[in-house]
Amino acid sequence: MDAALAHQLIEHLGEKNAPKLLLLNYPRIAERIAQLWGHEALVAFLNDLLFDSRGDRAGFPPDVAHELFVIQQIHDQVMGIGSDAAIWGYEEDVGTSAIHIRDFDLSAFLEAAKQGDDLVLQEQIKGGVRIDEPDADGLTALWWAVYYGHLSTVERLLQNGANAKVADPQGRQLPHLFAGTDHCAGLQLLLRFRVRLDVCDHDEVTPLMVAAAKGRISAAVLLLENGLAPAAQDHNGKTALHYAAQAGQRRMVELLLSHGVDPHAPDHCGQTAYEIAMLHPDSGKFQHLFV
Q1: Mean pLDDT in the chain?
Q2: Which of 42, 157, 258, 283 could tie 36 with a disulfide, CB 3.0–4.6 Å?
Q3: What is the number of H-type helices and E-type strands within the chain?
């Protein structure tokens, strides 16, 4: 990585929050973050990294994920993107604000959730651990277990009363994570524990929209079968069909059209899903769907 950009990134974050592991193991990502600092494009870039919008990776190692969350929190404050601790269902501890992040020292409990180590997890629960105690990023053991796809760990935590409404700083909840990875067994597990699937993040994005953007057909079918509104709109007026069309997800477009989503319904900028599909480089594969 360019030394000047590395120095610039550390200056933005402060020495205490220097992303040493990111700089060492993911220099291109660190360089891109430094280049985009202070711009809206970085908000989208970090969201994509942490939420895996491409759907082609299992996630970053826990230590690196923490560094990325710290970067996101600090940059959100720079950009004036606020967060209300009450949204997450806990009171923020002193020393865990975006600037004053405490040193990275996850408990054995949180680490066990990330690794899917149910034996250690159960020992910690028996020892009286606070099951919804968040880490410095406001994320609990349950959120991390879902993020890394450890289904047995998720079930154990839910059985022990973990708060299933936990969300990340963007308001993304457990159904968003499972929908984004096409983890139908995970979604079904949430249903078993009576967890609502029709939730939204702070931008009114639903799990169905996440599935639509990534072409997660199985998850989308399950969500639709369980009552998620196919024509729901996010804060920009976009429906799941807009997301599917923009991402070039032909099968998803076909599925949503079969559920009655209007391809000519405009978003708040006046653009329809049909128009978006026709602007796609592979627009030919969509043409017959709208006839």
Answers
A1: 84
A2: 42
A3: 18, 0
Low-confidence ranges of the chain (pLDDT < 70): 51-59, 81-106, 291
Cβ count near 77 (within 10 Å): 14
**Whose CA is closest to 268, among 225, 223, 234, 227?**
234
Query: What local confidence, expressed as pLDDT, does residue 81 receive?
Result: 60
> Distances from the Cα of 207 to the Cαs of 47, 95, 240, 285, in angstroms?
15, 32, 9, 25
Alpha helices in 17-165 (DSSP H): 20-25, 27-36, 40-51, 62-78, 85-88, 108-115, 118-126, 141-147, 151-159
Domain ranges of the chain: 1-82
The answer to whether 171 and 202 are in contact (CB under 8 A) is yes
Helix (H, G, I), strand (E, B) or coil at 266: strand
Q: Tell me how far CA of residue 4 lies from CA of 15, 20, 28, 29, 272, in angstroms.
A: 15, 15, 14, 15, 44
User: What pLDDT does 147 receive?
Assistant: 94
Secondary structure class of 272 (helix, strand, coil) = strand
Buried b (16+ CB within 10 A) or exposed e, 237-259: ebbbbbbbbbbbbbebbebbbeb
User: How far apart are alpha carbons 53 and 63 in whole angstroms?
Assistant: 20
